[in-house]
Structure formats: structure tokens, C-alpha cells
Amino acid sequence: MIECQKHLFDIPDGVTYLNAAYMGPLLKSSARIGADAVHKKLNPWDIKIDDFFDPPNRYYALAAKMIEANANDIAIVPSVSYGTAIAAKNISVKAGQKIVVMADQFPSNVYPWIDLAESNDATIETVPWPSDDNWTRAIVDAIDDGTAIVATANAHWTNGTLIDLVAVGEKCRQVGAALVLDLTQTLGVTPFSVKDVDPDYMVVGSYKWLLGPYSLGFMYVAPRNQNGKPIEESWITRKGATDFARLVDYKEAYEDGARRFDMGEKSNFINIPIAIDAMELLVGLGTENVAAYIKTLTDYIAERARSIGLNVADEQQRVSNLIGINFTSGVPEGVAEKLAEKKVYVSIRGDSIRIGPHIYNDKADVDRLFDVLESSL
Ligand SMILES: Cc1ncc(COP(=O)(O)O)c(C=O)c1O
After folding, report:
1. In whole angstroms, how far apart are CA 151 and each of 54, 55, 220?
2. How many domains does the chain have?
3. What is the distance between the alpha carbons of residues 14 and 100, in angstroms, rounded to a whole number?
4. What is the per-residue pLDDT across 46-56, written as a single tens digit (0 to 9) for each?
5. Which residues does 3 contact at the CB level (< 8 Å), separation at least 6?
6. Is residue 32 part of a domain?
7. What are the pocket residues of ligand 1 if the criterion is a CB atom closer than 6 Å to any ligand atom?
8. If you measure from the C-alpha of residue 17 to the centroid of ligand 1, how many angstroms do you get, rounded to a whole number?
9. Using one digit for the tens of pLDDT, what is the confidence trace for 245-290?
10. How far is the CA of 22 from the centre of ligand 1 (A)?
């Protein structure tokens, strides 16, 4: 079991930050690396051609390691919506077919499908909230021969209820549906392997659980989809891009693998080194170990919540890193203000409080949260 990693972060003693689902903090080392990277541009003559390619190559390798893919299957994207737009551009949908999504799914993995359905006379099938929290069964049951695409995640972003992607992937393959995943709320802190799930596309933003910068993420594109069309035509994705003297010898061919899907200016000299630093930590600790550590905290949250009569999903129906506490008759008045006053940071969503602990949290953080909740009931 790994230990609490709070020493690596700049979180003051008076702050209880339990909201990685909103935004993860940078590591202190990443902030130093980012500051150095900003300063490097004071002297652009020191930025060499290799600096355009070597850091992205390291980032692909770390991303690939995290999901058991090849570095060549990874593209650098600025946002989840950019990745889902690539997927939507490359999956064909016929009139009358269905695109399956979950109720209240995060919009970046919904809007492109609404658009694609509208322009092809297809329909969106929204799987309603399952009363038993069993999203896996509900989604698998919704997939049939008429399903063109399943756009989903490893957990519902609002409360951490779990989706077994191995089962969903299997059903997709049975009926020939494409599988598009947004793993922004779980990747790096919950094990995931493209070998087990075999998605067509998987995209993740780096600024939450991956402890990275904003405006950067990565995308896995299954080898079978790597002949697709990107959504922009950048010089850096074409063959021979390393030869800066010959960029106007326009090339028809893209670089191999998923390179064609990279965003323009993929070599962001500030964001990429920051993201690499955090990915090195997470990959070094190991996703299984990180997940096991965080699960001790979400399990403790579940135990504390139940002991005062509050609702949480059963252990088998929730992901290790994210948990929602549901107040059947609404979050009690004044809780938000009290949490803010005590500098306890969580998200309030409707009748629920969403808690996202990470490797910098410990049980004392959970105790401080419950001090506020218990005094508010
Ligand atoms: C599940 C999920 N996906 C994606 C995002 C961010 O999407 P984008 O990168 O398109 O802004 C969020 C942000 O809250 C999220 O919770």
C-alpha cells in the first residue's frame, strides 16, 4: 500500500481538498518545471527542433503505459470535446440507428453525438438512472443490433457509480457498435486497459485526476481506426515534419499510427513538461496502488456516511476514486456555507455531495468533512 503523498503538494494544513473531480492540484515539482519552461521562452534560441518532438514522445509513452497501449496509438488533444469530435467525424451512422449515452453524462461526450444523430437521421438513446445503481446492466441491455455507437465512461461523473467497461466492450463487439470512452474522471486512479476493453476511441483530460495542466489531454485511437480523418490539418502530423527546412515540400502522407490526430502545436513547451512530471509520478506509483490507496478513503467515506443514515452506492457499484453522498430530502441548508467556512472543498450537485479524494488526502480529511456534515444534520 502506498502512503499519503501530501508532501509532494502545496496544500496548506487548514485546507481539506477533496475535489479532484473538479480540478487536481499540480505537484510542487510540476510547478517548478512549468516555471522553468515559461522562462525558457525568454531565450527562444535555446528551443531546439528536438524540443518539438522529444517531450511529446515521452508523453505518448507514459500515456500508453497507463492504458497498456502502444505509444503510436496515442494522440495529444486539447480537450475531451476535441477527442470526441475526432471520433464523431470518423464513425459512420446510418438512418434509424442508435447512439447510446447515459442520463446526465458529461456534455463533451454527448453534444457531438446529438449532432451526428441529427445529421444522419439516427437517434440518441439515453439510458435512465438505474434504481439499483447498476449502470453496467442498464447500458448492456440498451445495446442491440440497431446500436451504432456507445459513448460512455468508467463511472458516472456526478457520483462515481461504476460502469464495467469490459462487459460493455464485449456487448459492443457482439453487435458491431463503436465504443467511445471519456475517462476523465477515472484514468490514472482506476485501472484501465485497452487490451481488456478494446474501445474504438478513448479520451481523457489531464487537469483533474492526472494532476496535469488545463488545455491538455490524450486520446487512444484503436489501430483499426488509424486511417481516419483528423479535424485539422497540421504540418506536424505529416511525414517529414522534423525537417524544418522542407516543410513546404507538402506531403500527402501522415506520420504513422495516431499521429494524424494530434492537435496543432502539440508540443506545448509549458504544458507537456508539466503533464509528463505528473504522469511519471502516477505511472511510477502504479494505478493499482493509487486506486487501492484512494479506495481506503472512499470506503471510509461510505462507512461514515452510512453511520449517520446517509445514502451511498454499494461497494460493488462504485468506482474507487469518486463517491456521491445522497441526501434524499436535499442537501441541508447551510452545509455549503459551513464547508466553505471550514475550507472543506467538495462539489454539491443537486441532492448530492460529490467527493473526489486523491493521493494527497488521508482519513483526517474525511473526518473534517464529517465534522461539518454531522454538525449540519
Ligand atoms: C467526465 C468529464 N469529461 C470531460 C470533462 C471536461 O471536458 P472538456 O475537456 O471537453 O472541457 C469534465 C469536466 O468536468 C468531466 O467531468
Report:
1. 33, 31, 14
2. 2
3. 44
4. 999 999 999 99
5. 293
6. no
7. 79-81, 106, 108, 157, 182, 184-185, 205
8. 19
9. 999 999 999 999 999 999 999 999 999 999 999 999 999 999 999 9
10. 9
